[in-house]
Specification:
Elements (H helix, E strand, L loop, with lengths): L4 E7 L1 H4 L7 H12 L2 E8 L3 H14 L2 E5 L10 H9 L3 E3 L1 H11 L6 H5 L2 E3 L3 E3 L8 E4 L2 E4 L3 H11 L9 E7 L3 H14 L4 E9 L2 E10 L2 H18 L1
Helix pairs in contact: 3-4, 8-9
Length: 239
């Protein structure tokens, strides 16, 4: 059965310090939405094993799947594989396929300690290969361990998307020129009526005048269209 809900666990001090603008969760949210899998939570934690382990254990028990991003490189602060292994209570092993592939590419003399770190995965994990790197990601149970470098993450994500969702979400947006406070009560009533449609209001400003969008999304196109017509009629009545 394909995963219907997922969480994203972003790992890295560089994200929390503002050094790096996080892009992988945004991409995952878009791709999972189109597949019909609800990305229900995004958590960001530092390169600290206790934080990674506790957050991962909560997420993997709460949602169908967890996608991690970051911390699988060659340096001392790349501890995601170690932490995932600890969360599952399994050993961290050098994977024979990764050792072979990296040795063939870099040669025996090129297999320094940093590269050897990248051959390790939790015992029992399967590999997530892509065409952007020799060192793959890994999957253990419902946890997918992907790279933090955006172009590698994107390639690895593509290779696992078939495990997620079945009925795609659809989204429509309705432009509004009224302040949110004018239609807030009516919009709440519409949300209660269409509990299978997600209704959100996102304000903005066009010069001196308020403007924004009401966004509707659902896996049921008929209900989505009915909700759209109801919102449009409500807005017209308030003009």
């Amino acid at each position: 059965m394909k995963h219907q809900t997922a969480a994203m666990l972003v790992i890295g001090n560089e994200v929390l310090s503002g050094r790096t603008r996080e892009a992988n969760a945004y991409l995952a949210a878009q791709e999972l939405f189109e597949r019909g899998c609800k990305l229900a939570e995004i958590a960001i934690v530092p390169d600290v094993d206790e934080a990674i382990i506790s957050t991962l254990n909560r997420l993997r028990n709460q949602y169908d799947a967890v996608i991690t991003s970051g911390g699988i490189g060659p340096t001392h602060d790349d501890i995601t594989m170690d932490s995932v292994a600890a969360a599952f209570g399994v050993a961290l092993i050098e994977h024979r396929f990764i050792v072979q592939a990296m040795t063939e590419y870099f040669g025996n003399e090129g297999m320094n300690e940093g590269r050897k770190r990248m051959t390790r995965v939790p015992n029992g994990a399967s590999l997530i290969r892509c065409d952007k790197t020799i060192a793959p990601g890994a999957r253990i149970d419902n946890v997918y361990i992907l790279a933090g470098v955006p172009y590698i993450f994107a390639s690895q994500l593509t290779s696992i998307l078939d495990d997620f969702g079945d009925t795609p979400f659809q989204r429509v947006e309705i432009e509004v020129t009224l302040p949110e406070s004018v239609f807030a009560k009516e919009l709440a009533t519409i949300q209660a009526e269409f509990d299978d449609v997600e209704v959100g209001s996102y304000p903005g400003r066009c010069g001196p005048d308020p403007c924004g969008k009401i966004c509707l999304s659902s896996q049921n196109p008929d209900r989505l269209n009915m909700a759209k017509e109801t919102v449009e009629a409500m807005l017209t009545s308030l003009q």
